[in-house]
Design brief:
alpha/beta; Rossmann fold; six-stranded mixed sheet; globular
């Protein structure tokens, strides 16, 4: 439930959000393949599902993005049959629809939450959509291991001015706390965001990951995937 302060400041938040949208650079999704078969060894079926960060916004090619960086590490150990299902602006609810008909996988990596914060998805609805997504991955798509990226701490992103930044930060923390709780209940692995989102990690729009952050993120997710399979 929104506080009285947030309700009173709603017009300010709206005006600041419009200002950010007007000046922020619109960056395209990364080019390159979104599915493939690479590497040698035991087969590993990998799904990456998410929003603009999963789609590689912030870098030019998928080889630099989350999918490419995960593959860089995984193909040293496995034959990876991979698929990227991602769309800029995707919420957790939309991801459920995006998942339909996508086949069977061993490991799924989820990158969602920012758009739920920006669209002010209620915590209960967010948790419900994430729960449905995790259950669907297991029951219909055969996924054994689910790696869930934390909701980024938007309160630390300087592209947003205060008081909007503080408001988004509180919402992001609330959604991530519910996501962490859900992962514990449904045996999915919550992967924290523990890097300060400074310019060295971000794309030039100040919001999406840059090449360095994708490299670190991909390395971590690949390591967790291999650990779960060992």
């Amino acid at each position: 439930m929104q506080s009285l302060t947030d309700l009173a400041l709603a017009p300010v938040y709206a005006a600041q959000a419009l200002s950010v949208l007007a000046r922020i650079e619109r960056m395209p999704e990364a080019e390159g393949p979104r599915q493939g078969d690479a590497g040698q060894g035991a087969p590993l079926r990998l799904l990456i599902l998410g929003d603009s960060s999963a789609a590689g916004v912030g870098v030019t090619h998928q080889s630099e993005a989350l999918s490419g960086q995960m593959l860089h590490h995984l193909i040293k150990h496995n034959r990876v049959l991979w698929k990227l299902v991602a769309r800029s602006g995707a919420t957790s609810a939309l991801a459920c629809a995006m998942l339909r008909g996508q086949g069977k996988f061993d490991i799924a990596v989820l990158a969602l939450g920012v758009n739920d914060v920006l669209r002010q998805t209620r915590t209960a609805r967010f948790k419900q959509a994430q729960s449905a997504l995790i259950k669907d991955l297991r029951m219909r798509h055969g996924v054994q291991h689910i790696l869930v990226s934390a909701v980024p701490p938007l309160g630390a992103f300087e592209v947003f001015p205060d008081p909007l930044r503080s408001f988004l930060g509180r919402r992001a923390l609330a959604l991530d706390a519910s996501l962490c709780e859900l992962c514990a209940l449904q045996a999915a692995q919550h992967v924290p965001f523990d890097l300060a989102p400074g310019p060295e990690w971000l794309a030039r729009d100040g919001l999406h990951p840059g090449a360095a952050l994708y490299a670190e993120w991909g390395k971590r997710m690949a390591g967790l995937a291999l650990h779960n399979l060992s």
